[in-house]
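Dear colleague,

Following up on Tuesday's group meeting, I ran the structure prediction for the four-component complex that the binding team flagged. I've pasted the input sequences exactly as they went in, so you can double-check that nothing got truncated or mislabelled along the way. The structure tokens for the whole assembly follow below. Feel free to forward this to whoever is handling the docking comparison.

Inputs:
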Amino acid sequence: MLRRIDSLSYQGKLSSCSPLWKSGFAAVMFVMAYIGHPPVQLAVWIWLVLWTVGYGGVPWKPYASLMAASLLFYILSLPALLIEVAPGPAQGMVLLGWGTHVLLVTPEAAERAEELLLRVGVCLSCFLFLILTTPFTGLLKVMEKLRLPAVVIELTMIMYRFLFLLGDTAASMMLARRLRGGGRGFRAAVADTAALAGRLFAKTMERYRGAIVGYTVRGYEGTIRMGPDASLPMPVRYRVEGWVGTALLAVAELCIRLLN
Amino acid sequence: MFKRGRGIGLGLLITAFTLYFLAVSPQEVYAMHIMEGFLPIGWALFWWILFLPFFAFGVRSVTRLTKEAPELKLMLGLAGAFTFVLSALKLPSVTGSSSHPTGTGLGAVLLGPLPMSVIGSIVLLFQAVLLAHGGITTLGANAFSMAVAGPFAGYAAYRLLMNTTRKEWLAVFAAAAIADMTTYLVTSVQLSLAFPSVHGGVWASFLKFGGIFAVTQLPLALSEGLLTVMLWKWLKAY
Amino acid sequence: MVELVLEWQDVRYIYPDAKGAALAGMSLRIPRGMKTAVLGHNGAGKSTLFLHAVGILRPQGGRVLHGGMALDYGRKGLKELRRAVGLVLQDPEQQLILNTPREDVAFGLRSAGIDEETIRQRTERALERLGLLELADRPIHHLSLGQKKRTALAGVFATQPEVILLDEPASYLDPVSERLLLHSIDEIHRTGVTVVMATHDMDTAYSWADWIVVLDRGTCRMEGPPDQVFANKELMEQLGLEIPVIVDLWESLPAALREGRPVPRSTEQFKVYLANNFV
Amino acid sequence: MVELVLEWQDVRYIYPDAKGAALAGMSLRIPRGMKTAVLGHNGAGKSTLFLHAVGILRPQGGRVLHGGMALDYGRKGLKELRRAVGLVLQDPEQQLILNTPREDVAFGLRSAGIDEETIRQRTERALERLGLLELADRPIHHLSLGQKKRTALAGVFATQPEVILLDEPASYLDPVSERLLLHSIDEIHRTGVTVVMATHDMDTAYSWADWIVVLDRGTCRMEGPPDQVFANKELMEQLGLEIPVIVDLWESLPAALREGRPVPRSTEQFKVYLANNFV
């Protein structure tokens, strides 16, 4: 699971193209998602799916499953968004009533949930476009351009380097625990997990000690300098489509606003 | 307008509840990361702005620490990677389902709350970018609840209990459990401010969101407290 | 016909997000009571094969049999399977859960719900057989890699499985520790356990195993006794596997001198032969 | 007398919290331009020896010399030393810092303050010579162990050191990756770099090295050319080190047949000899 998005982001057809262009484009689309009216939002949604799955070459199966998994939060929040308790008679679809109190879905809430679904979907498609077509090293370059403090970028780099190592270690430890049949009952299960986390911590410290030697040998003196951005420019064809499409969306949005 | 809303609303409602009961095996939801695009733009910006000063202070403290000892950068990076992997471990929960620990309480006790705000936000960035849990527009809000509020509350609880009771296990348990609880409460506040109820306003909305996530978050806080105490013991023996 | 402990019938498996198939129609049999070596490069499918044997992975096509019966993937079936088939992972760090060899060996027994007295006895016996008694109460992070590997093996052995699968047990060990570990494995085999070892050391495989299985890109390319397998030079070359030094040298002797003689299994046998024939 | 690149003079070192000395009067010389193999069991002091060569550890007694001069442990001296003496650790994960081979290889150059154009060229050359060009932009966690090891080696090679020390480079590799790595090491040696390899594989050491050094419990027990070292059977046995199979078999041939002939260095040479003499 940990490797899934990472692998996809390196294998796509747009992977080696400029991360700056892609994140700039995604940022503009985020703005569209927020300020646009439903028709424009829908257009952005469809367009970005096309960019990711079509131009980016991200397989549709993992794409759809990521989209669905992310929507789980929305689904989980639905009852809170929809259901209201009113102290007296109120407008809406009544689900339950006792005394003067009613449990109901108000039209405002239903409308809000609809709007939210649309916005969440569009934003997700922007978000997935960015993370599925841009390798993490590219995002680091963007962070650098955004002038994030050097220490944050270095920490991010170091973390990224060790995430997968520790992740693999944890995965094999869990495998071993399954093979050997963990303890029974809640307490034993928590104790096992704690032992596992502890062992993982010990491993982490071991990695730390090893890395200090390794980094020193390589001439590390407290700072990691990043190289220049070596990514390819976005192909002209896509750049043109990006600009033209954005312009069209902006015009459409303007028209809707003027007509209302 | 209302007619249309009602028709679609009803459809939504039915599908939603069917899905709800099919899908709510909460282990797959990193329950308290607000998803991409969920917050209205005003609130998304608001939480970013609230989060940034803490982040800036955190960066300053980390810079100062690592200037004195550059190898601490490696240590902090590894601590972050460890927190990330820890949060992917499934933790048996008292309710029988399983949940994911956050590790922010333990981190705050070990590293201090300010460095944890930096490490925690990077961990959140990774969860967003590598696991698609959370998002970019909501990163400010999530970071505020999980990397700022949680660690600070957990750390405060730890100090307080250490000074008053001197029972280390109790302090560690409280740090972990309270960091979790605080994160959960702050997130509920964030959601209810963004989506106040028509009847009863923000307070009613807080009860609803709080109620829904309590199902996963209360047992999680308890299990995480227990886990952290056992982990603490384990580390001491080591 | 020998009895089979484990059998893979045309098993197919593709990891999610992987490009190629890890197992692409794997058909393979493990005879009971023997010492089997599974040969092949990294990526040939050795680990995936083992994970199928303990039901961690389920075939996407074909089936796996244990004792002639298709695996039962129910909760109870899996529990029984994992009691009968023990897997020792390559890196012992990941397999060891508790803090000392004694505690760790007892761990697997305790979760099987055995009474404490039996646990104590069995743990003692396992530690003894693997030469770990003196180290039994030392914290695991003070042990050498070879000792950790033997502890991991002891933990599996103590649960008394029919088969023990070992994934690259000798990797990273120096020659002395490797010899000790191989000795322990032989000790275990002598108690009647079927032993299967994945390795890419041809020399070890040749002198150790009774039965050899050669994997390549998710299929089984050959199975048979060692001399027969390594006699197929063409296949070995095609798969990029080395011929054991002894076999290689033996084959370069003139055919007349080798006629009717078995290929020596060890340097010792070869030396005896040379000494007897060229004086 | 050959020129020495590195020399240890009666070096003593005890790790904090350890019982015995890791180096107990280690005296050892590494001749320039040669391929040296450092032999010994785990714990014989191989890694400690290497860490002294790059100034990570400082002798508690005795001294270490580089190019005939005692090491300067000042900031500047260490920087120069580490530019001249490259160390490749056993676990490549420890020493890979950035996220793709291209970036990582450039890391060492960039921190030496070289201009970007030269960095680009040297990185390219190092990647090419180690056969990593196609993998250059793949994230490191997608590489196999063998590829990671070659990346670590490339990172050290790119900084153009005089000597490269390799700590157990072949451990954990399958035969194909091992052959590739050894090939890369020979490539590097051909550019004029002195190469030193710690190993416990006697067969590899025997066929690969020009010069062999045998360590035991923190001291150097023997140094010399391979045939001479392995001719000392008594010592090898006493240290529990194996004789290379080829030497072992050769020695078991009757003395009359061996007289005046050099011991074969590889299976190939042995085969030629057998084919020529027993037809």
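The first helix of chain C runs from residue 46 to 53.

Cheers,
M.
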